Amino acid sequence: MASRLNYISQLLSTKAMARLNGKLLSTEVTLVMRFSRHFVRTAASTWRFAAKRCALAVAFLIVVTFAGRNSLAQANYQPSPENLKARQEFQNAKFGMFIHWGVYSVLGSGEWVFHDRALTVDEYNRLPLFFDPEDFDAKTWVALAKAAGMKYITITSRHHDGFAMFDSKVSDWNIVQRTPYKKDPLKILAAECHRQGIKLFFYYSQLDWHNPNYYPRGATSWDNGRPNRGDWNLYLDDYMDGQLRELLTNYGPIGGIWFDGMWDKPDADWHLAKTYALIHELQPAALIIPNHHQSPKPGEDVQTFERDLPGQNTAGFNTTSVSHQLPLESCDTLNGSWGFNIADSKYKSPAELERRLVQAAGNNSNLLLNIGPMPNGEIQPEFVTRLQAVGEWLSHYGDSIYGTRGGPIAPGEWGVTTQKDNQIYVHILSWHAPLFAIPPIANKIVEAHSMLDASPVEFTQKSDGVVLKVPLPKSDEVDRVVVLTLAASH
Ligand code: FHN
Known about the structure:
This protein has 13 helices and 16 strands. It has helices spanning 2-11, 14-35, 43-72, 81-93, 113-116, 121-124, 138-147, 175-178, 185-196, 232-249, 272-282, 350-362, 381-397; strands at 95-99, 152-158, 199-205, 256-260, 287-291, 303-306, 328-333, 365-371, 405-406, 415-420, 423-428, 435-438, 445-450, 458-462, 465-469, 480-486. Helix 2 packs across helix 3 (43-72), helix 10 packs parallel to helix 11 (272-282) and helix 12 packs across helix 13 (381-397). The radius of gyration is 27 Å and the shape is globular. The structure holds ligand FHN. The site of ligand FHN has 7 residues, from loops.
């Protein structure tokens, strides 16, 4: 309640508050006089008391209205058959490429540089003048995603700087009108993705550090030269929904919209019902993936987790429970940054990335792995070689990942299981003894083999569990996968 009231007081400028108080004051005074005469000694204190009551009444009304609207989101949402099919395909895909790319990459200091250096809007406005990605080649990007074994791409159509990396008619704060490049890379990328059979999702930041109508400001705001006023409804209904309409009509069928930034104003009314309905109406198969760090709301199609597997909260973002209805996704960085960061060399090794992918699959989740291309449009070699190595690993082990769901045994330090039809894949990530015991499996196991070389794996199955005799790992073996084939259930 305290944070909501805080929000309300931000929302109502002093002037607006005075106007509203004026309107409601006479009713309030009557009420106060009738019910509280012995508490109110003088006319002056009557006015003060009435004004307080009045402000609280207004605040309460707004809280109720806003809380109601926000929590309802797209009430009574029934996903269309196309949407349900897209959810299945999304779950089968398992591995995607996340791309953070914007004018911020010019400074090589990540995508938060506007905020982190507390730049003014006027200062930041100079950045697009230096953004000319003449080496951007969509064919190479999509081919790299495919070589890595990734089945979809999610790219920033705009990040928190509000800069549209596409041809937007809603405002000139976009790549075509503000940069020497003058082209729409998302158009080129979308065409290439369609050609190479990769689904394209658009990341869209609802948080905006540049637009004056993103007002009242949120938790990440600083004084960057915007006026202390703005029209929130205009921002959502005209600006944001206008751009979403463009993204959903000018780029062919897209995989969906990946929202980010609602956490900046968690109690605000984001007009979700309207925005979600617009997306589902324009492209019923497009999935809505919100990174709001809250429990899923009606109208959302995927639950996503930032820098953590579902159910974990090492990064501090994921405090909610895990949905059993929606597909799950976990996103992470290949080094430590989202946007291009020239000083970040904390690259994860191919083995770490493979483990991460296996753990995601065993937790019934996709992995969306991020790279931040350079301002010239190239992807740095440290990313390329690591992604290619993961792709090489997947060319051998892909059957144990793609199209699977989390297996019947709870993930543990030792590893995870995945399952597809009548096959269980036991992914042994950390186990050094030759015998490995797992809890009971309902169906009879008819065969077990190692995925590495198809050699048989001895096993005993009893009512209290299964024991596998696994070969010791080879020195460079990241994941020992034992495939159990189950008898068909009758
Ligand atoms: O602030 C962003 C951050 O820059 C990045 O885009 C990540 C990706 O999940 N999400 C936000 C933080 O929640």
